[in-house]
Design brief:
This protein is mainly beta. The chain has 3 helices and 19 strands. The strands form 4 sheets. Strands 1, 2, 12, 13, 14, 15, 16, 17 and 19 form a 9-stranded mixed beta sheet that branches. A 4-stranded antiparallel beta sheet has the order 5-11-10-9. It is globular and about 55 Å long. The chain starts with a strand and ends with a strand. It holds the Pfam family MOSC. This is MOSC domain-containing protein. It comes from Nocardioides baculatus.
Length: 278
């Protein structure tokens, strides 16, 4: 197999930032999902509730070498915001059912986000130490950690699986007398790694991937949510892919697509690298 895409998301639920290469650490891809938007109760605000987050472009020196600070934020109609890593003591935040700690980015960042998202209760926080977070019992090992991903540090998606899913979507539309939609892009699934060269849904059987000497342990399939139904460009929603995944990929009440990974070492991976499966 081959690595055909590498994506970083400096801001959780922000715009996808494709890169040619990236450093891998035990906690995930360098700079991935280390910043997060929270509300006045310090709870996660994601694109599930505020679709406009998809239009907030967050870059670091890893995603754009022209960035000379820790984070640059861009959004339509607003001046760029340049931020350094926040100082001060970390404060409690809530990521779904997880109680974590993060450093507030400060009032300038909060004011910028409120203008970008049209909400007056949002704040920006930064994960200063991802090793504080432990991962899901039963699927993780001691020492596994991450910043602000939903579950595990890295996700991988297969283009072969996407092709099969798009075929199923078209078939279902024809069965219902609907016009088949345009094929979904792999970006709907916001995977860190995009691979091709294996059979559709072969990832269900993978135990590990090795890319340029970096081994990734496969933990479990990814349960998909309504975020996959949002068009990141138009911000409109539709029934797919959840409708079709529920028909073909329903496991334990969850619709599955892609796989969660945990890096078991460090190194640099590059688009075009060979991917070895075990």
């Amino acid at each position: 197999m081959q690595l055909l895409g590498v994506n970083v998301h400096p801001l959780k639920s922000g715009a996808i930032r494709p890169v040619r290469s990236i450093e891998v650490r035990p906690g995930g891809l360098r700079g991935d999902r280390t910043w997060m938007v929270v509300d006045s109760d310090a709870r996660l605000v994601s694109a599930r509730e505020v679709h406009a987050l998809f239009h907030v472009v967050a870059d670091t020196p890893d995603t754009d070498q022209a960035v000379g600070c820790a984070l640059r934020l861009r959004a339509p109609g607003l001046p760029d915001l340049l931020l350094d890593e926040p100082g001060g003591d970390p404060e409690p935040v809530r990521l779904f059912s997880l109680d974590l700690l993060a450093r507030p980015a400060g009032p300038d960042a909060d004011a910028w986000l409120r203008a970008a998202l049209g909400r007056d209760d949002v704040r920006l926080v930064w994960c200063d130490d991802p090793t504080r977070r432990t991962l899901q019992p039963g699927f993780s090992l001691p020492g596994d950690h991450a910043a602000f991903p939903d579950s595990f540090p890295v996700t991988v998606a297969s283009l072969a699986s996407l092709r099969r899913l798009n075929d199923w979507i078209a078939e279902r539309a024809l069965e219902l007398g609907e016009e088949p939609p345009e094929p979904l892009p792999i970006e709907r699934f916001r995977a860190n790694l995009v691979v091709d060269g294996d059979e559709p849904f072969a990832e269900d059987q993978w135990e590990a991937l090795t890319i340029n000497g970096v081994r990734f342990r496969v933990t479990k399939p990814v349960g998909r949510c309504v975020m996959t139904t949002i068009d990141a460009t138009t911000l409109t929603t539709a029934k797919e892919p959840i409708r079709t995944l529920a028909r073909h990929r329903l496991v334990g009440g969850k619709t599955m697509f892609a796989a969660h990974l945990v890096p078991e070492g460090s190194g640099t991976i590059v688009v075009g690298d060979e991917v070895t499966v075990s």
